[in-house]
Amino acid sequence: MAGLQLTFVNFKKDAFIMVEGNKQIADRFFIIRQGNIRISKEVEVVHEEGGNILGPGDFFGVVSTMSSHSHIESAQALTDVTLIAVFKEQFPQLITNSTAIAMKIIMQFSKRMRYLDDALTRITLKNTATEDPSHLFNVADYYAKLRQFNQAYYAYSRYRKYCPKGENFDRAGDIMTKIARFAQSAKLDFKPEEITREYPKDAMIFSECEPGDELYIIQKGSVKITKIVDNKEVLLAVLKQSDIFGEMALLESRPRSASAIAYEKCVVMAVNRANFERMVSTQPQIIARLTTLLAERIWLIYKQLANTLISDMVGRAYDALLIQLEKNRMDVYDSRAYTFEFGPKELANMMGLATGEVSNITAKLIENKNIQIQGDKFFVQHIAEIVKEVESYRRMQKRERALRNASLRR
């Protein structure tokens, strides 16, 4: 590829190319030129779509490389293989030189992200994700009962738009008439040429289950990503300047999996499909940023899925704290103090528990003199102590697994 110096590397059959948890070669990913690779994880939570055997044209190691996190999987050569090594700093040039490779990576990431996100929703939220636009009425009703009329008005309007023959069509219209004067911040539509859009605090940018064909880049302010599960709002993320959201609906032409609401006054840039295709070749930095974002989300979901397999709930709680430390790129072997940006309620959401269920777990956590609740947020006096606790529970989990496997073989 012109202007791009790629490195070819060879591995013999049975050689390990990368090892789960090892950051040694997380500065590069690989594209298979010849041969076959097996991808595996220490604990398989969900089976990958398409299987774990990769061949020529496939790639691996992108998640750890683009997110700059530890490897979430191991790769072993099933045959003698020839690989193309791509360093992280070379990725924008790769995008410019080969749009097809860049789009393949992005599309596979998006598909993988949706698949894993659905799996995590089923396991932690005890809920099957729905894409039925009639669910928009339930979203609207939820916010109306809380007197959050901006969100309610927007969701009712989208229900009427996408479900013109829905059983609640007239009812939604009646409610919209009643709450219209309380929902002055609810902006329903923008012209296609209005790429830069401003939203006041609490305005809904889009609702879960709404069809979408745009992604958004935050220019100013912040946006919260939420989902209504079992008649309660679950906070999934708070995004800030330069963050990207809404990409899966654009890339896969599927309904929104969650809602986006202005957490504070914000300005976003909307990118539709036509603009996105131009950006792939003309603005590789933004595409590299999107790939990095997807990689970070996939890394986090894998960690959260693995967390669900920890049988001891206190051990799961420690692991959830460690995941957040790693997500924020803290040195987990540091002896410094650290204040998390959340407390017991948010920890319950992360673990898929009812708020009441986390009370006993929190009580157990703060029995450890290293952990306190300060201002409704978790505080640790020494970050490294979290790692020690997690490693202890992981050893216990491995012993339990080994005993179960041994008993099954008898």
Q: Can you summarize this structure?
A:
With 410 residues, the protein is α+β, with helices and mostly antiparallel strands. The chain is 42% helix and 21% strand.
Topology record:
Blueprint: E1 7-11, E2 16-18, E3 28-34, E4 37-40, E5 53-54, E6 59-60, H1 62-67, E7 74-77, E8 81-87, H2 91-97, H3 99-124, H4 135-145, H5 149-162, H6 169-179, E9 196-199, E10 204-206, E11 214-220, E12 223-229, E13 232-239, E14 244-245, H7 247-252, E15 259-262, E16 266-272, H8 273-282, H9 284-307, H10 313-327, E17 338-339, H11 344-351, H12 358-365, E18 371-374, E19 377-380, H13 383-409
Helix pairs in contact: 2-3, 2-9, 3-9, 4-5, 5-6, 9-10, 10-12, 10-13
Provide an overview of this structure.
By secondary structure, this protein is of the alpha+beta class. The protein folds into 3 domains: 91 residues, Jelly Rolls; 156 residues, Jelly Rolls, CATH 2.60.120.10; 100 residues, Orthogonal Bundle (Arc Repressor Mutant, subunit A), CATH 1.10.10. Helix content is 42%, strand content 21%. A 4-stranded antiparallel β-sheet has the order 1-8-3-6. The protein has a 4-stranded antiparallel β-sheet with strand order 2-7-4-5, with no helix packed on it. A hairpin with a 2-residue loop joins β12 and β13. The mean pLDDT is 86.
